[in-house]
Amino acid sequence: MELALDTARSWADKAAATLTDLPDTPGAVALRAAADHLIERAAAPLG
Question: pTM for the full model?
Answer without folding.
Answer: 0.65
